[in-house]
Amino acid sequence: MKKTILMIIAAALAVCVLGGCADSGAPDETIQTGDTAEPAQTESADVPLTEIPGIQGISADDVICILRFDDSDTSGQPSRVFAQEEEIAAQLERFAAVRLTDKAGEGPKMPDGISYVIRCFDGTETEVTFYGDNGNIVDFGQGEYICENLPEETDDRELWIGIDRYSYPEGTCEIGYTLYNTGAVTQVSFVPLLEAATENGWESVYCSADFMMSFDDVEQGSVQKTVTLAGMFAPLEAGTYRLSIVHGIIDPAVKLSDVFEIEDVAGMAATYDSTFKLGIYTDKSAYEAGEAIACFATAEYIGWSDNATMHSSDPLVVFYITGGEYFNGDWAVNDVLVTTTFEKGEAVTYDFEKSGGYSADDPNADFWASYFAEEDLILPAGEYEITAMMDGDIAEGDDDSKYRQSVSIAVTVGE
Asked: What is the pLDDT of residues 83-93, one digit of tens each?
């Protein structure tokens, strides 16, 4: 019995050797699909691409928005933002349908094209640019390819909103948008809904205002609206946001949405409440040793009255510095009464002024004497925060109250 088994094994080995099964290299990988097996695709340079990388597998739920840029437009703003889920899904289907046929050969620089930037909640971005009359050349960061099967981009919207611009600086307290209606009369509620993009998707931004949901008839045409963030929402941090209004008295409600971005702009910081918008500005954020820092602040009344009057010490807006070896946020004002009237919507500028003091027995007296003797703002090497603070009593109409607000900006001085 043992001899029979050994003979069978030996015979099997012989067949494998004769048939080439004992190959010195590894066998080709296969992917089993149903009843057939196909060779596995690899990332080898020898295997040509047939689809746009990074597009396959993305769903509309993964995407914040898709930005369309016309390369001939130098404004830096997208020509269209695809923010509705169905719009995003339609664009992803267009890109997934594209088939790459071959690498485009060397030639003259391609004319202006149309670029799409797919922004996802996980922080990834994929950019795809189509060139040519029929979009038959595509560039996705790995060279230009000849492509086919790109479906035509269609626009069958009847009711939608478009925010005035895509990017706003921090401290923005108003967002304008337009409602477009190319169809029949419909009903819309203009109560603003605001959401922030997070790695987990859209999250509602708290609104401190109480609204009663009401609906207005909207006829064919366009309606311009402004959302005043001040007094309803806390100052928005840098990030991406979705503004929506509700269409139709139905359950669940249908949202009309568009997306905008709040940017952290170097050399600028701003904040606001329901009364004032306060900003602080420097000519840049990083300085060399001995370089003067240009700095100023602005105060703009945005309250409910046509104007407001502030009673304060001098100056109304005081600056102070923290950081480095010497600065601990000290400041001083002149104990005199100053009255300042602000007209609504008009920003008033305050140039940086040094304030504070020191005594003769201060261990840093030599530094402070040199600092205050220098007209320009020049700081030793280090990291600093410059703050502008507005402090006084405010009169709006017949209402009087104490008021204080501050805003800070960071600067760095090299060795």
From this structure: 999 999 999 99
CB atoms within 10 A of CB 244: 21
Q: Which residue has the tokens 């703009």?
A: 300
Q: Which of 138, 152, 239 is nearest to 194 (CA)?
A: 239
Radius of gyration of the chain (CA): 32
- Give the integer Cα–Cα distance in Å for 309 and 299: 13
Q: What is the DSSP string of 42-53?
A: ---TTS---S-T
Q: For residue 147, list its beta bridge partners.
A: 100
User: Are residues 181 and 187 in contact, defined by beta-carbon separation less than 8 angstroms?
Assistant: no
Q: What is the mean pLDDT of residues 7-17?
A: 36
pLDDT, residue 350, reads: 96
Model pLDDT for residues 27-72, shown as the tens digit of each residue:
444 334 344 444 444 444 445 688 898 888 899 999 999 999 998 8
Report the distance separating Cα 176 and Cα 253, nearest Å.
Answer: 22
Domain ranges of the chain: 60-148, 159-263, 268-413
Residue 75 banded pLDDT, cuts 50, 70, 90 = confident
Cα 127 vs. chain centroid, distance in angstroms? 16
The domains spanning 159-263 and 268-413 adopt the same CATH topology: yes
Which of 249, 232, 250, 78 is closest to 162 using CA atoms? 78
pLDDT of residue 2: 38
Cβ atoms of 228 and 211 within 8 Å: the answer is: no
Which pLDDT tens digit goes with each residue over 180-223?
999 999 999 999 999 999 999 999 999 988 877 789 999 999 99
Half-sphere exposure of 395 (CA within 13 A, CB side): 9
Domain 268-413 has CATH 2.60.40: yes
Q: How many CA atoms lie within 13 A of 406 on its CB side?
A: 13
Place of tokens 């919507």: 345
Answering whether pTM is above 0.90, one says no
**Tokens coding 167:** 């990017």
**What architecture (CATH level 2) is domain 159-263?**
Sandwich (2.60)
Q: Are 158 and 264 in contact (CB under 8 A)?
A: no
Rounded CA gap, 164 and 127, in Å? 23
- The two tokens of residue 219 are 């006829």
Ramachandran sector of residue 196 (left: φ over 0; alpha: ψ -120 to 50; beta: rest): beta
Give, in degrees to the nearest 5, the angle at Cα 102 between 96 and 106: 125
H helices present in 262-377, as ranges: 365-373
How many whole angstroms separate alpha carbon 363 and alpha carbon 381? 19
